[in-house]
Amino acid sequence: MKRHLISAADLTRDDAVLILDTAEEMARVADRPIKKLPTLRGRTVVNLFFEDSTRTRISFEAAAKRLSADVINFSAKGSSVSKGESLKDTALTLEAMGADAVVIRHHASGAPYRLANSGWIDGAVVNAGDGTHEHPTQALLDAFTMRRRLVGPDAGTGHDLAGRRITIVGDVLHSRVARSNVHLLTTLGAEVTLVAPPTLVPVGVETWPCEVSYDLDSVLPKSDAVMMLRVQRERMNAAFFPTEREYARRYGLDGERMARMPEHAVVMHPGPMNRGMEITAEVADSGRCTAVEQVANGVSIRMAVLYLLLGGSEPAVTNNARPEENK
Q: What would the DSSP string read from start to end of 257-293?
């Protein structure tokens, strides 16, 4: 693996499978009475969040703490950043504190890349979402969830999603989750189709390694997984569709549409959901929806990423560790 995780496009198939296989080991730790490993004891992980995010920040915090790392949560609100401090000066401050890894979420696309390649810090940089660009750990946890549901956790390590047909529906234009998933899923051998209103399809999408459709009903019967994207109204400064009701009618997933999917197919959502718009309560609360699993799997994936970026030569999970070492 590379020293940083900035883009899902940076991951080779071997890198991606290594992360997924390591996350499978990490997931077993969650079943233990004491959910902690000594692997990153003495290391410091900084969560540097310039955008609000309860789910992702807590997930990274839980992952680092389960690996026994020291965690510093740095929120831009109420900090020196709100007083005008630059990203460079913030980074130099973190470097002075001895940060071994910086998990950064930023409203500007490219900020994590800038941080990783600036020479301002020596630690590893993990992109937790930058603008409308990428969110690689979300794509990894999505792939991990699909692999568990469609291939099975007991199928052995090394399995990927070759030949699986994944449909991503909704606000692709503003979605860093969609971009990262297209890169990662195609690397893992899946066939990806984007479904969205023409106004919510990005310029240049024809260069992406995926198909594009505007007819959800025609794609559903041949989908192994359907990922519904949140409509990001906070990023919209124009009318991208006539009404919410019209959007739900054409691109929302309800019980009737879910019934057209193959029996084994799953419904995914990165959260938070706009219930009644991109997904109905009936679908969101059904056994085919993996939204809650995705949250749990996110901790395992982020444990795997931090371990592989920061871990030394010791195994990720040791079954013969003395009880006091896991406290």
A: HHTTS-TT-EEE--S---BTTTB-HHHHTSTTB-HHH
